[in-house]
Structures are given as C-alpha cells and as structure tokens.
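Sample pair:
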Amino acid sequence: MRPYTATSGRTRPDVALDLLSLVSATGVRPRTALGPEHSHVLRLCAAAAAPSVAEVAAQLRLPAVVTKVLLGDLMRYGAVTARAPRFLNDPADDLTLLRAVLDGLRRRL
C-alpha cells in the first residue's frame, strides 16, 4: 500500500505539529469510521506514555507528514491531543541541562 493512500492523497496536515510534540489519546471515540491507520495511531497513543510524533511515525513505518495528517484528523475528532515541545530559552537552564547530561555521562563511565 502506498503511504498516501492512508490519507486519501492529502499531503498537508490541518494542524501544525512538531516532530517532538507529544500526543496522547483522550478516550473519545470518533463518531465516523476510522481507517486501520487511524486505529493504529489511537492504540499507540493510548498504550504508550505520550509518544512523540516521530515515535508514532516510526511505529507506523510511514513518513512523518503522513503521520501528521492522521494525527490532525484524530485531533479534529477530539480523539488525541498534542503538547508542543518545551524549548529552553534561558541560558541558565541550558547550563543546568548541560551539567545534568555531563553528570549522567560521568556516572556511566
């Protein structure tokens, strides 16, 4: 099956999703019939602790843009929510993060 068959040929998602956005199932079941890919996405989002868009795409073995279209559909139905990644802007936070990574690496050596 061609990847874009899952999205009826659509190549652009309705919502802006970052590859690092975390998606989770809401428990709401769409009132419309879902395709097998949509159902698979819902199972992935319900089973894991908020996977990222990239993780969902990898599990589906579909291009990220196709996965984003599927997730956009499910968001429109209210079946999933997405939380945008939090980027650190404060230089002090960057140093704290770097120190934590360095400490973790030292512990493993």
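Residues 91-108 form the longest helix (18 residues).
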